[in-house]
Design brief:
Elements lengths: L2 H16 L8 H14 L7 H15 L2 H13 L4 H15 L1 H16 L4 H9 L10 H13 L1
């Protein structure tokens, strides 16, 4: 695949999760965006949604709250339902410890309550879905998940 196609594939994964505003232009962020999302997140065996769930579980277990917050937002942007995220927190709590699972659940709940992201609203708009006033991230994610399920 040529360089332009590779950059577009990487860009689509990142934008689907985090919107068009990229990370700060620090060297580590640039490397992360260009390597991680191009070489790892686009591998064929696991879907972007599955990779997102694995990433969230690991971040919960490690207690990496800043990155966890961002990745929960990303999961909601790509239409991972609140039900799936909540179920994952129950699973993580039993393997990584109750405090880790509870902390992760609290971070997820904070994200659910925030206003829907521009990425979510654009996804719903493109699909011709009505957007209730004051739509939250959690509600928008559930609508996107429902829409993609059938």
């Amino acid at each position: 695949m040529d360089e332009f196609k590779e950059s577009q594939k990487e860009k689509k994964v990142f934008e689907a999760m985090f919107g068009t505003e990229g990370p700060a232009e620090a060297p580590l962020d640039e490397f992360t965006t260009h390597y991680l999302y191009q070489q790892i997140w686009t591998r064929p065996i696991l879907s972007v949604s599955e990779r997102s769930m694995v990433t969230i579980a690991v971040l919960v277990a490690l207690g990496r709250d800043r990155e966890l917050t961002r990745h929960v937002e990303g999961a909601l942007n790509i239409g991972t339902s609140r039900e799936r995220i909540n179920e994952m927190m129950i699973q993580v709590a039993h393997y990584a410890g109750w405090p880790a699972g509870h902390n992760g659940q609290c971070i997820a709940l904070e994200q659910y309550r925030k206003a829907a992201t521009a990425t979510q609203l654009e996804t719903l708009r493109k699909a011709g879905r009505d957007q209730p006033e004051n739509l939250t991230r959690g509600e928008a994610a559930d609508l996107i998940a429902e829409m993609r399920a059938g």
